[in-house]
Every structure is written in C-alpha cells, then in structure tokens.
Amino acid sequence: MNNLPEPAPVVRLPDGTYTYADHLLAIHQPTTTPQVVHQHIHQAPPDRTVQRIALGSGVGAGAVAAGVYFGPLLVGALTAIAANLAILAFLAVALTWVVTTVVKTVGGSDSKVAAKTVRRARRRR
After folding, report:
1. C-alpha to C-alpha distance for 121 and 125, rounded to whole angstroms
2. By percentage, how much of the chain surpasses pLDDT 90?
3. Which terminal Cβ of the chain has fewer Cβ within 10 Å, N or C?
4. Cα(121)–Cα(115) distance, integer angstroms
C-alpha cells in the first residue's frame, strides 16, 4: 500500500554537483507542443522618491512613515467625497427635472402663467 511515486535517479553533473535525472530529461527533450507560460503580474512597488527627498531634507522617519500611510488614505477619502458629491449633484438635477415636468403637466394654465412671469422676471435682470 505504498502510494508514493518512485524517486527519480540522482545524477552527478560534470561540475561535481548532484541533481535529479528527471529534471535533466525534461530540459534536453525537444517538445513539439508549445509551452504554456504562466506569468504572474504583480502591482508595481510604490515610488519612494518623495520619501527619499523628505529624509534627505531632515524630516524624521516618523513623518515619512505617516506620509506613506496617510497619503493613499487621504487620496481614497477625497475620491469617495468627490464621488458622493457627484451623485448628489446628479440627483439634484434629476429631481429638478422631474418636479418641473410634473408641475408643467399637472398645473394646467396657472403653471404656464407662472412660467411666463418667471421668464419675464429673468429678462429684466
């Protein structure tokens, strides 16, 4: 009941080191099918130029560490605030359009008179 595979034979190379023979067979055998390459793409390391300049100008390591930690945090927070403001602006425009459309549709002749009055008041400015 031995489920382990048989070990590959060990071969001594000309430089005196030992290696497994199955590895050598895989290298020296020509392949007819194309090899699949699995490339792992990682995120690029952060640019530390600002931190290096800060350390060179005499700023302490604590301030640089705070900049490294809070810099991306601040960018994320500002982006979230900007996205919220954009959504609120869109909602304000959409609700204004809905209200004016409903008032024009439901109001009848009174709303048309009110719209003319508002137009005249704007022209006088």
Report:
1. 7
2. 19
3. N
4. 10
